[in-house]
Amino acid sequence: MEPKAQAASDPRDWTDDAVAARIRQLKNRLGRDVLILAHHYQRDAVVAVADAVGDSLKLAQAAAATSARHIVFCGVHFMAETADILTGPDQAVYLPEQRAGCSMADMATPEALEWAWESLTRAEAGPVIPITYVNSAASLKAFVGRHGGAVCTSSNARNILIWALSQEAKVFFFPDEHLGRITAHDLGVPLPDMLVWDRGLPLGGLDPEAVRAARVYLWNGFCVVHQMFFPEDAAAWRQKEPGIRVIVHPECPIEVIREADAYGSTEMIARTIDAAPAGSKWAVGTEINLVARLADRNPDKLVVSLSPHQAICANMYRTRPLSVLRVLEGVAAGEPPPVVRVPVSVAGEARLALDRMLTLS
């Protein structure tokens, strides 16, 4: 237990260790009523106080499985929305930093998607199954549920696209064009059969005849962090460190992925490096907090960022241990902060798309 004098001081003046000690104290007091979830991209001090750490799929599964009444989601807004959809009405989901959004998710709005869908109908594109990456607003997940589609994560995109492509229908994949492209291509869809849909142009800036001939439409959205990696980064590391292996996230452009030895979700990247033999060398194309953590816990291996620049997710970085503490203090005092609550009318249809995802994972 922390010293009484420190407990009475302003928490904003505490060290991360002091904040962590208070968080542990409150967690012990609240017991199983509270679950703290943290994404891999969170800073180390937040990961240290979490009950579960993982990628979007793993954390969604954890939220769906828990009976905790209070879920503190250390991530970004769409993740907390997903947790709310997958939990019961007697459970509350909190986002410690309300400003933690996602620029990729913001690249696809319900209005733009409805416009695109109507355009496909007018162009007589034929049957289309919508697939939304989990990095999207609840309203887009509801659209997908309403139209018979599914949500996917980077962990299960392959399974979801196998399901969609087996139905003799075209696929509209949004909002990340890069994950859609590499997954569909590795399943045998030729690159010319995939069209990039420009969200700001009528019919996505495409010719109606080309739209009717295509198999996959890719919304032109992207992750800012994963655009910081380039094919020449892989060549530079191979020249500097002979024998180094390159592993990247599928939100990277296909030109980067094709220069890598492996690609996969954050969960897959972490699992691969943790299981690698001592002395192995890795250049990792994903967010720097995860890369640094993998380097720290694998001192017998060389683990470096693929990029020479700091590929950091500013929105994930907003959350601090103090952010988590404020939520727990409010819950313990019976005055919890505002919850993330998806309207029932949206949550019902979004749940259909999320349940399809969990069933196919």
What does this entry look like structurally?
- The protein is α/β, with parallel strands linked by helices.
- It folds into 3 domains: 4-100 and 318-341, 3-Layer(aba) Sandwich (Rossmann fold); 105-223, Rossmann fold (3-Layer(aba) Sandwich); 230-310, Rossmann fold, CATH 3.40.50.10800.
- Helices cover 45% and strands 15% of the residues.
- The protein has 18 helices and 13 strands.
- The strands form 3 sheets. A 5-stranded parallel sheet has the order 6-5-7-9-8, with helices on both faces.
- Helix 4 (56-65) runs parallel beside helix 5 and helix 8 packs across helix 18 (344-360).
- It is globular.
Blueprint (SSEs and pairs):
Elements (H helix, E strand, L loop, with lengths): L3 H4 L8 H15 L3 E6 L4 H4 L4 E3 L1 H10 L4 E5 L2 H10 L5 E3 L8 H4 L3 H13 L5 E6 L4 H9 L3 E3 L4 H9 L4 E5 L2 H10 L7 E4 L10 H6 L2 E4 L11 H10 L4 E4 L5 H4 L4 E2 L2 H10 L5 E5 L2 H10 L4 E4 L8 H4 L3 H12 L11 H17 L1
Parallel strand pairs: 1-2, 1-3, 3-4, 5-6, 5-7, 7-9, 8-9, 10-11, 10-12, 12-13
Helix pairs in contact: 2-17, 4-5, 5-18, 8-18
Short description, anyone?
With 361 residues, this protein is α/β, with parallel strands linked by helices.
